[in-house]
Amino acid sequence: MSSFEYAAPKSIEEAVAILSGGSEARPLAGGQTMLVGRNRERLKGTVLVDLGRISSLSGIGRQDGAVRIGATATLNAIASSELLRKELPALSEAAAAIGDAQLRNRGTIGGNIAEGDPEYDLPAVLLALDASIELAGSNGRRKVSARDFFKERHPHSAESDELIVSILQPGAQPNSGMAYVRLKHPARLTPVCGVAAVLTVERGRVLRARIGLTGATDHPTRLETVESALLNGTVTDEQFSSVAAKSDGGISFRSDAFASADYRRHLTRVLTARALKQALSRINA
Which of 5, 29, 80, 104 could form a disulfide with 75 if both were Cys (CB 3.0 to 4.6 A apart)? Predict the structure, then answer.
């Protein structure tokens, strides 16, 4: 059994003070990864900072014209939110696809993105949405783009004493559609490959494209080659299939006992085309 200390702060400021207090401390949200199996052994000698009593971290609503999702909002809350279903449907659909009901009732969006894990769903969607992640630390608060946040898996762009506070994202945009598609591992229920796409189209041409990839690489990433190839192009199935064939440009795919790098490369091409077609079908739907 691992031995660790426990703290339950009631404010963000109190939590940050503990995290930056000199002792090794780690924030605890849903605990669906941290408290499972061998991960418990890594907690020996640490201070677990339980975020469950900080009410300002859990809400979903609007703030200054943007959609704000608190870091401890559960996956189930995200999946069932009427606001997110209307404004950011790809995000609510991705949350609904994660794990099983028990995991979704405990798991949080902050926990899902904190490590930039290559086997989690939500990072791909946040990359495609160009979301901002709000962090609080001993030097105050700051916002970073999802793109910068997920650049590296270990460590991610959050400093050691920083806490994920919220995810901020403008709501539904005119002439835009979004989608998330994946192939899941049959046992782990995590994405072997997942692709999120957000398209803005006007008069039959792509004005803006953002595509996020998870599961297939060592950290969540944007498919910038595909994004560039789409700009000002026509919106046809043939065009989507053509640019999706370029989705492996400059990317190193990971391999494990379940799927080879070549298979994940193939999945990325197939799912990119599928996500683009689905996103297009949802424009003004």
Answer: 104
Higher pLDDT pick, 32 / 70? 70
pLDDT of residue 152: 58
Kindly report the CATH number assigned to the domain that includes residue 181: 3.30.390.50
The number of C-alpha atoms within 13 Å of 18 and in the hemisphere containing its C-beta is: 21
Which residue reads 């031995």 in tokens? Answer: 3
Whether 136 and 149 have beta carbons less than 8 Å apart is answered as no
Residue 7 phi/psi, 5-degree rounding, is -135, 145
* Structural domain for 161, as ranges: 55-170
Nearest by Cα to 208 from 224, 227, 193, 195:
227
**How far is residue 219 from each of residues 13, 78, 194, 212, measured CA to CA in Å?**
30, 23, 12, 11
Average pLDDT over residues 141-153: 86
Boundary-marking domain end, from 170, 186, 202: 170
CATH code at 18? 3.30.43
Distance between first and last Cα of the chain: 53
Q: What is the largest CA-CA distance in the chain?
A: 62
